[in-house]
């Protein structure tokens, strides 16, 4: 089975491609054999979890990679125990590719819970969440594939508005507009770093009610605006940055799945670029600027739905084109920071009777001059993970700065324009 152009691109961008998700549970470590049995029961019927990557035959430019199903499904080789602490385990995982001789995922049973790694060519972030959720005690197995709506005479299909050439052109220009990488030290001092920050729940609840009198803020809007403030704290206003006067862009993954395909595994997202308001001084002003941009995401997604079939068709016909596009988009001036946030909605979730108390995401490692952030709300726990490929220790600096910006936003006095700093209210691990 040929890979899609998106899957192929994740293999050809020159990066490890490992992403992950961890679940924290109280109590003693899980029994390894019970976890293997649960995986065999819940994932055994998921074809995606049995796919092995096969290299191109002959000319890779003409054939591309292929997926081949491994039979029988054997979770034993994928599921092992570890005593490694969570931060160092995530740092090792994101920096190294998974072994290619078996399906590109592994599950680790640790003293604090479970950690799932996968290659981005196999699963995207939403897919990781989906398969991890299937391990929980009360998880509902995914429904059987449904008949396509076009073949169902009783189905009601919502018609999407037509997308004009001007909208497509604007989005193409956004995709290719050069930005600015993160300021870095000399090349020899650049390296990966990972930080996991546990955010104060009360601070998060208060920050989500900003701006006062408004509709409130989503997790993505909070992450984007406070990251802009953190960059200003860590590196100064953009005019003080090297390499020109271009904006600093963040990319936001947006799921293109519908209700019918919500459980579909693989890669079903696109990414929308937006300039971050690093030069705005007020936390509330930065939040309002990000909200204005996020409000246009639905319209921009319509343009991506029009663009993607043509790009994927061309890359499928000429597989090396997927590599060219992937390497270009992975350049730090085009994809400098991936920022995403989501809420774990199944609460309480339990595994073998023990409650899931925290979800820790792991975004992928991007080229030097980048940092990727992911924020997850689970139960009453908010967890931010930063994966940086810049100066040593930048992940910790960025994570702590985002936490302080959230505190500043939570106590902002909009009418008076003043900002009061709260206490630390955070822990890093």
TrEMBL record:
<protein>
    <recommendedName>
        <fullName>O-acyltransferase WSD1-like N-terminal domain-containing protein</fullName>
    </recommendedName>
</protein>
<dbReference type="GO" id="GO:0045017">
    <property type="term" value="P:glycerolipid biosynthetic process"/>
</dbReference>
<dbReference type="InterPro" id="IPR004255">
    <property type="entry name" value="O-acyltransferase_WSD1_N"/>
</dbReference>
<dbReference type="Pfam" id="PF03007">
    <property type="entry name" value="WS_DGAT_cat"/>
</dbReference>
<dbReference type="GO" id="GO:0004144">
    <property type="term" value="F:diacylglycerol O-acyltransferase activity"/>
</dbReference>
<feature type="domain" description="O-acyltransferase WSD1-like N-terminal">
    <location>
        <begin position="34"/>
        <end position="165"/>
    </location>
</feature>
């Amino acid at each position: 089975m040929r890979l899609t152009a998106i899957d192929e691109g994740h293999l050809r961008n020159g990066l490890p491609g490992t992403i992950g998700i961890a679940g924290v549970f109280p109590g003693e470590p899980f029994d390894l054999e019970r976890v293997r049995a649960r995986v065999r029961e819940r994932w055994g019927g998921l074809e995606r979890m049995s796919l092995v990557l096969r290299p191109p035959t002959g000319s890779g430019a003409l054939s591309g990679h292929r997926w081949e199903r491994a039979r029988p499904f054997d979770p034993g080789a994928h599921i092992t125990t570890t005593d490694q602490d969570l931060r160092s385990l995530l740092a090792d995982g994101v920096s190294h590719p998974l072994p290619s001789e078996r399906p590109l995922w592994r599950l680790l049973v640790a003293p604090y819970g479970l950690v799932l790694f996968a290659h981005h060519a196999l699963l995207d972030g939403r897919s990781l969440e989906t398969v991890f959720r299937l391990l929980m005690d009360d998880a509902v197995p995914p429904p059987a594939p449904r008949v396509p709506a076009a073949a169902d005479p009783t189905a009601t299909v919502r018609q999407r508005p037509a997308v004009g050439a001007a909208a497509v052109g604007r989005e193409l220009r956004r995709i290719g507009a050069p930005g600015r990488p993160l300021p870095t030290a000399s090349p020899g001092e650049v390296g990966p770093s990972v930080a996991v920050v546990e955010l104060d729940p009360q601070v998060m609840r208060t920050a989500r009610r900003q701006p006062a009198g408004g509709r409130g803020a989503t997790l993505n809007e909070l992450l984007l605006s406070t990251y802009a403030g953190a960059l200003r704290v860590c590196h100064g206003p953009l005019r003080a940055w090297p390499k020109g006067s271009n904006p600093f862009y963040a990319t936001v993954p947006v799921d293109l799945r519908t209700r019918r395909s919500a459980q579909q595994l693989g890669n079903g997202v696109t990414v929308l670029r937006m300039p971050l308001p690093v030069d705005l001084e007020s936390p509330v002003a930065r939040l309002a600027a990000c909200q204005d941009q996020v409000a246009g995401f639905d319209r921009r997604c319509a343009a991506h739905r029009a663009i993607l079939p043509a790009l994927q068709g061309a890359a499928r016909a000429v597989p090396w084109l997927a590599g060219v596009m992937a390497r270009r988009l992975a350049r730090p001036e085009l994809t400098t920071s991936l920022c995403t946030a989501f809420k774990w909605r199944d609460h309480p979730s339990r595994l073998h009777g023990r409650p899931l108390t925290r979800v820790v995401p792991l975004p992928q490692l991007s080229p030097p001059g980048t940092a990727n952030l992911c924020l997850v709300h689970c139960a009453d726990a908010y967890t931010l993970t930063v994966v940086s490929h810049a100066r040593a220790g930048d992940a910790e600096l960025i994570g702590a700065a985002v936490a302080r910006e959230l505190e500043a936003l939570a106590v902002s006095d909009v009418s008076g324009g003043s900002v009061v700093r709260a206490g630390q209210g955070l822990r890093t691990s």
